[in-house]
Write a structure and sequence with these properties.
Length: about 350
């Protein structure tokens, strides 16, 4: 029997309570990144929020510029996701092109439309326009990443005789990952992006159905098959019961908070967070090290790769986070991760 395909792994750097000193927050990030590299992670990811009451999200572009100097040539840097419609597309395109230069061509651009209505209210962007703005913004960013002068006459932005001057190292531009939670978003990602990101809220069965849809749309457009990144929590315990208890303790309250902030994906399928075990069964990899390895080996690396985990949750100490990464590296990743060499995780050039 053929050996299971091996996966690449990534880590997403999460939020911290605003009561945590910002220097301690940054120190936690740097310690996570060091531990992640030591344990075989080759993707460093970071989300984005604005005016996020009670919790601090360090902004991804400046932080990833710092992390470019802290990471080896095999590590990809991926903001997942930047809420692109809160920027002028040219500003964002030039910021990201600069980050690609700083990182020596190791950037992946994760783009999303956002989901929290309060952020749109604060930043005075009409919530109902978010998808139109995102599509138009991506079109304009692609032009700003090319060397030729261009004109642009869109619904939201107009430019005449614009001359790009900051071009990314990766040509024609860094790979574009797009966030999506519903079938219409998966279709959009297949049409506009290079990959669709599977969110942690998405059940395994829906991820497989959506991957089939994503691949079908790409095939219609005469594009080859690609694996897509999957956010999954991997929680270890001496047995499944202990792992479930640890998972609920670290994450359940945060998932409820996300629901309260406008993200209804956590309960869309009727699998209530009140029944946390059933909820986790559909969305996480939980159990002993052997059980987690077996579950990962059942995930087709041709469909879902890399697997991206969250290590740090509010309330955890730095030592707990580093211990988790070391345990995950020792007991799981060392068994199922793809061997890496500098540059091995570079994705094919986008179309």
């Amino acid at each position: 029997m053929a050996a299971p395909e091996r996966h690449a792994f990534g880590i997403i750097l999460g939020d911290q309570p605003v009561t945590v000193d910002p220097r301690a927050h940054l120190d936690m990030v740097l310690r996570q990144v060091e531990a992640a590299q030591r344990n075989g992670f080759t993707y460093i990811c970071l989300g984005q929020h604005f005016l996020y009451d009670g919790f601090r999200w360090l902004q991804p572009i400046p932080l990833l510029a710092r992390l470019a100097a802290e990471t080896g040539p095999e590590v990809r840097l991926a903001p997942t996701v930047i809420v692109c419609l809160f920027y002028h597309p040219v500003v964002l395109a030039e910021e990201l092109a600069t980050l690609d230069i700083i990182s020596d061509g190791r950037l992946i651009v994760g783009i999303g439309s956002g989901y929290a209505p309060v952020e749109f209210e604060h930043l005075q962007v009409p919530y109902a326009e978010r998808f139109r703005r995102m599509e138009e913004g991506i079109e304009l960013m692609r032009l700003a990443w090319q060397p030729e002068p261009f004109d642009f006459d869109g619904e939201f932005w107009q430019l005449h005789n614009a001359t790009p001057h900051v071009l990314p190292l990766q040509r024609p531009h860094p790979p574009l990952w797009m966030g999506a939670m519903r079938s219409i978003g998966v279709r959009r990602a297949a049409r506009l992006g290079d990959a669709w990101m599977v969110t942690p809220e998405t059940p395994f069965w829906e991820a497989r159905e959506s991957y089939a849809l994503f691949s079908a749309v790409r095939e219609q457009r005469r594009l080859g098959p690609v694996a897509v990144p999957m956010r999954r929590e991997i929680v270890l315990g001496r047995d499944r019961a202990e792992a479930l208890q640890a998972y609920a303790a670290r994450s359940r309250d945060r998932y409820l908070a996300y629901t309260q902030r406008g993200n209804d994906e956590y309960q869309r399928h009727g699998s209530s967070l009140d029944d946390f075990e059933a909820w986790a069964d559909e969305r996480a990899i939980v159990g002993s090290a052997a059980e987690c390895v077996a579950a990962i080996e059942q995930l087709d690396a041709g469909m879902f790769d890399p697997l991206i985990v969250r290590a740090a949750w509010p309330g955890q100490t730095g030592e707990q986070v580093i211990d988790y990464l070391d345990q995950l590296g020792r007991e799981v990743i060392s068994t199922v991760a793809r061997p890496t060499t500098p540059g091995a995780e570079r994705l094919p050039a986008p179309r």
